[in-house]
Amino acid sequence: MKKIVIISGDPNSINSEILYKSWKKLSNNLKKKIYIISNYKLIKKQFKKLGYSPKMIEVNKLNEDIKSNQIKIINVKINFKNPFKVRNILASRFIDESLSLGHKHALRKDVKGIINCPINKNLLKKGNVGVTEYFASKCKLKNDTEVMLIRADKFSISPLTTHINIKDISKKINKKIIYNKIKTIDKWFKRYLKRRPKIGILGLNPHNAEFKKESEEVKIIIPSIKRLRKIGINLVGPLVADTIFINDYKKFDVIVGMYHDQVLTPIKTIYKFNAINVTLGLKYLRVSPDHGTATTLIGKNKANPISLINCINFINKFGK
């Protein structure tokens, strides 16, 4: 039986709550596949604080094929004095060790894929601006071949640039990044979803800068579209960003934007908590809930687990 590995993520978060709420909604067959990378004592105390008392078991490695419905914790051995206000230095160490262990397990043939619960990006080691970039670095990817894809229902969006400041976006956009990332999207859809996707790509500027000669649309985006079409990719654009999400987005499998909020804001507005974050181009399938650590909700028992549930179902359906 192939396994699904979940990384519990940031200890100062709603993660223990969404893990428990998701667990309660899973089938017994699916529960048997799941192993959670966390700290056993930490998550047990957080569950207790929330009023949860699930059956749990500590395991030392993934090889322990325990076919039970207990929550199986692969223990990251760190001594947390206060499980509810973990100091940043310990939280950062815990996250780094957990992600590293998750990457190691993801490479195994008996693992369908991995899920990481939300993480405060400020706790990642320097050089990794997000978890997408962290796993891309671990897989030693080059030439901008990793892709962030946010998927909800049968529709997806993807930003060509991810966690960078607005002032730096135009410097990052070039023909190479467009070519490599859209090739990755096309390849991933064919491999995992068994279909040739219809991809729409947005312009960078309002109204595509009216296609002025010196615009990024004319100098970079349109030539890239022509090149990608020549190799058989079903690509349309550059589309106008201010109207595409009214209705026309439904004509596409994926809408590719130039920067993070250009496409993440609309999909979160439309689909709320139903979306998941998928990293394309890795050596394995990795997804995460499409929301943050929600520190204002910690301990209030109000967190919505639907995105994590969708992650688990996605891995179970499409994992190798």
Main sheet record = 12 strands, mixed
Q: Kindly estimate the percentage of residues that lie in beta strands according to DSSP.
A: 15-25%
The CATH topology label of the largest domain is Isopropylmalate Dehydrogenase
SSE pattern:
EHHEHEEHEHEEHHEHEEHEEH
Unreliable stretches? none
> Which sequence of strands runs across the widest sheet?
3-4-2-1-5-12-11-6-7-10-8-9
Keywords:
Isopropylmalate Dehydrogenase, 2 domains, alpha/beta, 10 helices, elongated, 320 residues, twelve-stranded mixed β-sheet
Walk me through what this model shows.
With 320 residues, this protein is an alpha/beta fold. It has two domains: 180 residues, Isopropylmalate Dehydrogenase; 139 residues, 3-Layer(aba) Sandwich (Isopropylmalate Dehydrogenase). It has ten helices and twelve strands. Helix 7 runs parallel beside helix 8. The longest helix has 19 residues. The protein starts with a strand and ends with a helix. The relative contact order is 0.17. The mean pLDDT is 90.
